[in-house]
């Protein structure tokens, strides 16, 4: 019975750690859209169309502005100055957070940013010797 509860406990923790970033992303994007709708509302009121496909015009314009902002931020992220800022922030702040390196490696593996063998538990040596580690 203890094994069953341990299984349920670890499965719930794993699910929580898996879903947490998505929940945070939804909350942040929702808040960003709410803020953008407040700024875009007066412009949307001047356009004679109220809804498009059942959605309010202000929400659609806010979504498009957020997508444009993300595109511009993505373009900026490829510049040398943005990479220098990101490296400085990582060295001086993020590496001091507990678990940051672990989460970064998991995120890199999930997004296929890491090369095979750079994360210890996915390295070829651990997969080939004896029983599987995973």
Describe this structure in words.
It is built from 5 helices and 2 strands; from the N terminus they run αββαααα. The chain is mainly alpha-helical. A two-stranded antiparallel sheet has the order 1-2. β1 (51-52) and β2 (55-56) form a beta hairpin. The longest helix is centred in the N-terminal third of the chain and has 45 residues, at 2-46. The chain starts with a helix and ends in a 6-residue tail after the last helix.
Write a brief caption for the model:
With 134 residues, the protein is mostly helical. The protein is 71% helix and 3% strand.
Shape: flat
Helix content: over 70%
Our Rg estimate from Cα atoms comes to 22 Å
> Strand portion, in percent?
under 5%
DSSP strand tally: 2
H-E string: HEEHHHH
Class based on secondary structure composition and strand pairing? mainly alpha
Furnish the topology, listing elements before pairings.
Blueprint: H1 2-46, E1 51-52, E2 55-56, H2 57-77, H3 80-92, H4 100-110, H5 124-128
Antiparallel strand pairs: 1-2
